[in-house]
Amino acid sequence: MGIQDTSWNSMKTFLSKRGVKEDIRCFEVRNITRENRESVETLLIEKKDSFLAKTAKRASVAAAPLAAWVTANVKYSQVLEKIKPLEREQANLLRNLKTAENKIGELSTGLKTVDKTVEDLKKRLNLFTKEAAEIEIHLNKAQETIHAAESLVFKLDEEYSRWKHQLNELSKELKILPQNSILASAFVTYLSSCSQDIRRSMVIEWTKLIGLEEFTLMNFLGSERQQLTWQTQGLPSEKLLMENALIIETLSGMDSENSFCPLLMDPSSCATEWMKNYLSGHNVEVTSQTSSKFNTSLDLAIRFGKVLVVQDVDYIDPVLFTILRGDTNQLDVKSSFRLFLTTRNIQADIESHISAVISKINFTTTEAGLAQQLVQCALKLEKPELEIRQQDLLRREEELKLSLDQLQQNVLQQLASSEGDILQNKELLRSLNETKQSSSDISESLAESSKLKANLITECGMYQPLAEYASKLYFSVGNLSKINNMYQISIPTILKLFQKTLSSCSNVDVITKKQKFLQAVYLYFARSVYKSDRLILALHLVHNSFSNLFKEKEWDLLIGHVITEDKANINQIKKDIPSWISYDRSYDVYLLQNTLPELYNQLYLEKEDIWQQFPQKPVPMNLTSFQHVLLVQALCPDLLHSALTDFALQNLGLLVLSPPPLKLSQLLSESSVSEPILIITSPGSDPSEELRNLAKNLKVKYNEVSLGEGQELFALQLFVEAGTQGNWLCLKNLHLMISWLPTLEKELQNLEAHPSFKLWLTTEPNDKFPSMLASCCLRVVYEAPQGVKRNLRQTYNSWEMYKEINKSLFILAWFHAIVQERRIYIPQGWTKAYEFNDSDLAAAVQVLLTRLNKDGKNIRWDFIQGLCESAIYGARVENSYDLKVISSYLRLYFTDSVLSGKQFLTHSVVIPSTNDFKEHIKTIERLPEIDLPEFFGLSPNIDKIWQRNRSKEIIHYLKDLSYTDHKYTKFDRSEWHVQLSPLLNLWKKLNQTTGYIKMKVPVVNEILPPISIFFSREFSFGVFLIQAIHNDLANISRVIKGSLLPDKDIIEFATLLMQLKTPDKWLKLWQGSTNPSLYIQSVMSKVEAMDKYKDHINTTLNLSDVFHSDIFFSALKQQSSRDMKIPVNDLVLSCNWGDCHTTKSVFTLKGIQLEGAIFDGENIVLNHENVSDFITAPLLTISWVSKTSSIVTENILTLPLYSSAERNVFVTELNASCKNNEHDKLIMAGAAFYIQS
Predict the structure, then answer these.
(1) Neighbour-count burial of 108, counting CB atoms closer than 10 A to its CB (0-12 exposed, 13-18 middle, 19+ buried)
(2) Are both 851 and 895 inside the same structural domain?
(3) What CATH number should be reported for the domain holding residue 701?
(4) For residue 827, is the peptide bond before it cis, meaning its omega torsion is within 30 degrees of 0?
(5) pLDDT tens for residues 137-177?
(6) Domain check: are 136 and 48 in the same one?
């Protein structure tokens, strides 16, 4: 139309002209020149998409018909050009016809000639008409071709979009292929043995270093199809396990000479079971290193190219060294040979040179993985149809994706193999149409599958909270192995408890199910831990189950994981808190105030009348149950154990911590043939008799073996025999044969046992007991009965074959019960847990019966007392004051007056009047179930002392349980800064006004008097200790600032400090507090005190100010010896309580506390129930005097002085007066002095 500009702006100008419609409507196609048409055809080819209807519509509604109009005119112009010669010819013919007609009249005479001419013209007209019809046919064919092309483009449009997207993704991946390859190789090489948390953190760190936004091993090396395949083979879909499977497949696909042998660290055996399915299509042989056919299996696998799976690899057999190193030139190794190693022991002993040529793959169960298993367990139990649908859905989804992938491959193959004009290939077009239809159907099916999958996830999600809760509890219980290596847990056990809980409460809400499961877990494991550890178990479970019960820092305050940056001056602290709070409670209240200021301000502690009867009477404050516990800890630690017990029971929903009574017969229904019953015993307990009776009642053949050196082969022989014949076997005292237990475990794994076979194991706790063996057993604790009454019952049960029992044996049984049950009150009862047991009782019975036979009625009690004190019970005692307790008991019980009934055995307990066995039993049954302190001769307030000490132990264990194994093992500068800054700042404040850090360690003048030398050495030692502490803390500070690289020693040192544990390095220098904050404050306080003493010796000394109090007494003794010119061995210590002398070689001591007794004026007397668990002793004036000048009276009582309330370090003996008849009573009460901390 005369416009050469084809731009859109020009087009818009043209369309906006007046009359443009008429111009278009009246456009004469014949006016199109050849050059113009060719120009437009070129434009149509170059901008093909722009002339498509759907493209043109997006630009303008008017543009679409105009585009079609242009296309039609171009086609019409092409047709006109083809028929133009015919038109010219036709025009000529018409002209000739007209001329002929004009001549008709003129040539009428030549009619025949005209007819002939007309006939010729008709023939020519028919010819022209035929040519026009052929042109029309060609035009229709062209239209059909165009339609086919349009259809083909439409059909391939979706594939084109998909391929284009894939091409873009491939292009992006190609650019970062080198970086991804580096990360993948590093992942497979270095991270296969790591946990999921470490993998995640290392990948994040590596991606930052290498300049990538993210990296996922599964996306780079794996595919969704592989993951679906592994899931159908039985591998849970947890990310860690999927990555491990990919690593195994990667290593399997490498040349055997260039790849590392995989070692699967698989405690739960789930990976081993998956491996068997994964390798099912190969020639696989499964064996173990302990198998007698191991070498043969290895040889055949190498020669014939088998896949060899070696199970339970706790160590690497030397025969494998050559294969693992790749030195196989001398071996006939077939290329298809593959070696896989598996172990359930994550602590397997792999030598370093072998670790370098194997690839450890960590299949340790994670919380997420276990939660998924628990969800599947719940589905199987409550909604098995959901699990079937889920598996079918996974299978169908995999098949659909594979089909879609195959269809795409077919499309590409058909297009690539097509010959000739693709638009004329009707077979190809038909095949493409069918493929497109199939692809659409599959896409719709996948979309439907995704919806079904989402619905399934929603339905399964109802079990997810409970499964995650159960998984968390599993790992919480697993941490108890830090307390006792025997406290192990297995996944089958938690699955069994989970199933049992769901079965028993199917129609309740999730919260109720959680509570029921928590109770089930506690009651099950409470029977497999010692009674003394049940409260620890309960509190640990409550803490991990109910995080909402604890506000920020409250739990840390309970376990002592808090530190204040302020220098704690006890005198200043005492001024800042209410005056009614005792001196020994000041620091704990100070910690409460600094750690939880908001809570402290709500307490109104200055109002003494509110708190006078706390905790017996509740205070009018809105406190949580745990805040009440914290207040008891701060104000009344002698009642803390009761408060902790009440708190645990309240949140567990139980009445008592003790599980229901358990008989060994109940365990039979709970255990399987492959699950041994492990009985963890305590000193003095032995389940052998109960086992024998159980086997006898069930008429089962029963054998038992007490293990010891040389019993291995005999025990294995009986084991195999019992396993194959279905007998019972009891292997006793496993703790004596720890090195043999891995062999027993392997034999147990390989045994094909008879259904009636039952293996019983007994052991005492041992830190080296194999955890795998403990976890695969059904464990119960078998403790000696607690309480004097239960102890006597057990003793008389062993004597039940006698109808008569001599009355003196009742005294002996009573004595045996007392010395055993007194172990509950360590360190007041005994300073350590002595292993008094049934063999001691048997020996004493033999001695007693021998004397009865020889002496008749005139029993030589001194003989019996001497043997029991020196050879039987006393032989186990290490502390001389504990031996005095035994001696006091023997003098009290083994007398004629007790035997005749004239004197009480103890507190209204009289021995039976006859030798009748039943009479003895009646006497025992009249005893109270709960022991009275008077039974042991202990002070009435011993329960307060016991609660205080036991609470300390419980808190110590809870503190250990609060630390995760991996939290501090890696250097994290920000974490170190947060955790260690308070301690570093405290140390800085402590040294602000002193010059000890830079001071040269003073040299002691050895010519000074001994006492001066002592104080000088104490100060010199203190300065040395301060500088040693400073060097260690300075190194940590430099590491945090980045000026020093951390090494292994620094990391271990800092880890202990972050856990608020005093490092062993410091404790070896001086045995102070195990809390590093208190340790450094104590060191600084002592050094400052010694700094004053070294130059100006003050005869009033606080013993808590010296490092080595025992040396002080020795130095003073040497000083006195010189002053008095008397040999050291001729001096004795003179103690005057309350007196104050200032003569030479005399010191007045303070800082001494008394436990188990009180001062009544000048005498030490038994205390009563309402007094504190300890008192501060009066000032003590001591001096060393000559033995000849000292006055010895019967009223003098010698008691030990210990360095602390734990009574683990003896300092010296102190004398004090007592009443005539209370000497032995005070000894039995466990009275002792200790230095105030």
Answers:
(1) exposed
(2) yes
(3) 3.40.50.300
(4) yes
(5) 877 777 777 776 666 666 666 667 767 877 888 888 888 89
(6) yes
